[in-house]
Amino acid sequence: MTPLSRRAFGTAALGSLLVGCSGGAAEPAADTRARRTRGTGGSGDGPSSGTSANSVRALGRSAPVRLLIPAIAVDTPLIRLGLAKDGTVEVPPITADDRAGWYLHSPTPGEVGPSVVLGHVTVGNYGDGVFRRLAELRRGDRIVARRKDGSTAEFAVDRVRTVAKAEFPAEQVYGDVDRPELRLITCGGPRDGQEYRDNVIVFAALRSTSP
Questions:
Q1: What is the set of domains in the chain, with CATH numbers?
Q2: Which residues are the signal sequence here (predicted)?
Q3: How does pLDDT run across 150-159, given as a tens digit for each residue?
């Protein structure tokens, strides 16, 4: 398993990412082009190994099934997100039982590279989304990903950024890293009509694993 790379995307645009941003009943599609991980068939399982920069052993590939963030009371199943028909990244569906989603063309949590999880800040008439309080996270807060093979990957928050969508830091979110990392993305900031103007991005690094 290799980390995400611009080279793997060819001429893919490095634009902004819209995730969970609509205040109405429908959500916009993400407007960034598909970003695929080299050597990934998208199945969510397969061999991999490596050692992260902080000496925590990287895990092999296994799809995440649940995400827990104790500091903001998040405990959500993870659905798999692929590509929309126009080649953009999917977002989770608008439902009363809101769930976050893992982008299946990114590394799985615990693998070397940036694993990407998307969630809504609001879900139309249903109210708050699963990532409503994402911007409240602080450095050192725990994020736990439970994986299909029964293992867990625990991350610690490095930083939280709120950025204008027009200035979305695609290279920082999707670019190569030499250790297992996690990206959580939703929307935030003021609304322009029914759309939020900003993205909230949580950057986290692997702290520990368990079989």
A1: 6-210 (2.40.260.10)
A2: 1-25
A3: 999 999 999 9
